[in-house]
Structure formats: C-alpha cells, structure tokens
Specification:
Pfam families: MIT, MIT_C. The structure is a single chain. The protein has 2 domains: about 1-60, Phosphotransferase system, lactose/cellobiose-type IIA subunit (Methane Monooxygenase Hydroxylase, Chain G, domain 1), CATH 1.20.58.80; about 65-230, MITD, C-terminal phospholipase D-like domain (Endonuclease, Chain A, 2-Layer Sandwich), CATH 3.30.870. The chain is built from 6 helices and 9 strands. The protein has helices spanning about 1-15, 20-40, 40-60, 80, 115-130, 150-165, and strands spanning about 65-70, 90-95, 105, 110-115, 135-140, 170-175, 180-185, 190-195, 220-230. β5, α6 (about 150-165) and β6 (about 170-175) form a beta-alpha-beta unit.
Length: about 240
C-alpha cells in the first residue's frame, strides 16, 4: 500500500498537481513508518528509512493555499473545505475556536438557536462519516458568559456522549484568552478560517433552503488559509 501511494504521489508531482501529491507523500511516509515499526530485519529497516528520508525531502516544501469566500456565496459546506485533507490516516483533530458557545434568541418565539454549537456538531458529523478514522477530537474554546454557560456545557456534553457511541473521544478545554481560530489534523494539515466554523449566515426560517444543507446556505465573507506543517502540535 505504501509503495502504491508513493508511486501515485510521484505521478501527481510530475503533473504539477502539488496539493494532491503532498497528501500522497505524507500518507506514504506514514505507511512506511508503520512498516519500519513492524520490521525486525535491520537491513530492511535501513532501506525503508532511506526511502522515508527521500520522501520527506520531496514533500518538505512550504504549502499555502488561500480560498476567498465572497459575501452571500454558496457551495462552501464543510465537506467542500475539509474533505480532501481528511485522508484515511487522520485519527486526531484539534479545533481551536473561542466562539463555540454563542446563542441567538428569536424575539417572537423565544426559541434558543444554538447555531455555533450546531456548526460544531455538523463538523463532528463530517468527521464521523469518514473516510478518515478519527478517534479523538480536541476542542479548545471559551466559556459563554452569564446564564448561557450552563446551556453551553450541557450541549457540549451531549455532543461528547453522542460521539462516544461512534468510538470517538471529545476532549474539551476552556480558555479566556484565546483569539485565533484554526483546525489541525494529525496528518499535518492546518486550516485557518477568519470566522472559524461560524461563517454561515442564519437561515431565513426552519424550512428555508439551506437550513439543513450547508452547501446551499449563504456565507459571510471570509478567508480560508490552508497550510501543511511537518508536525501537527497539540494546542
């Protein structure tokens, strides 16, 4: 599997499809590292390590892609932004967003609409569907102020319990000083969205197009920056 992945990476590189080739290089490196761990033959280990060194050199270039989402643009659901980076080797995800907490209250029905928490839930649903094999999600956010805190904690606990039914652990931490918003995968990809996960506009109603399908939901203007780092550090 590792050899086929590397072969595909070289082909993509030669075709100037650098983003796809980088994904394949990284996946090939990880597969070869697994082989090294399982191999007792020192000569084979040496050859595999040499190949890993060569692949690391090929994939070590700085990568940066920027996506501009215009005001009221549609077609930018979470799958559109994240799916190509969620390869099968992704097992751990870090989400840093200070606003997985804010609530909106409709003046007529007094119904609480937890849009930002729903956004996080939708993001988790995408991870559960695969093709990645996510086992752990780390969330770093801030507390909601006043009476909203208990509701925030209750919703996050419900999401945590629901994820556990799918074999996924949700670790939640709170900080009063975080400002940056970013999402990291343990295959080295990092995505920074100016508005975090909450770049969608509020739907016009419960039964309006785009309420359920985020690809059809109009967006706020924002910028998405995609980077690749050799090592993904924990936040």
């Amino acid at each position: 599997a590792g050899a086929e992945t590397v072969k595909r990476a070289v082909q993509l590189d030669a075709a100037s499809r650098f983003q796809e080739s980088l994904v394949c290089y990284q996946e090939g490196i990880d597969l070869l590292l697994q082989v090294v761990k399982a191999t007792t033959d020192e000569a084979k280990k040496h050859r595999y390590r040499q190949k890993i060194s060569e692949l690391t050199f090929l994939s070590d270039g700085k990568y940066h892609k920027q996506i501009r989402i215009e005001e009221n643009a549609t077609g930018f659901g979470y799958e559109k932004l994240f799916q190509e980076y969620l390869t099968e080797i992704v097992s751990e995800v870090w989400v840093q967003d200070p606003y997985i907490r804010q609530i909106h209250q409709a003046s007529r029905s007094c119904e609480i609409k937890l849009f930002q928490l729903y956004n996080f839930l939708r993001f988790c649903e995408m991870l559960v569907k695969g093709p990645c094999k996510v086992k752990t999600i780390h969330l770093l956010t801030s507390y909601d102020g006043g009476s909203g805190r208990s509701q925030q904690l209750s919703v996050l606990e419900e999401i945590k319990q629901s994820l556990s039914n799918y074999g996924v652990t949700l670790n939640i931490e709170f900080s009063s000083s975080i400002h940056d918003r970013e999402i990291r995968f343990n295959n080295g990809w990092m995505i920074k969205i100016g508005r975090g996960l909450d770049y969608f506009k509020k739907p016009q109603g419960h039964f309006s197009i785009g309420y359920c399908d985020f690809d059809l939901r109009p967006c706020h203007e924002t910028t998405v920056d995609v980077f690749h780092t050799k090592h993904t550090k924990k936040m």
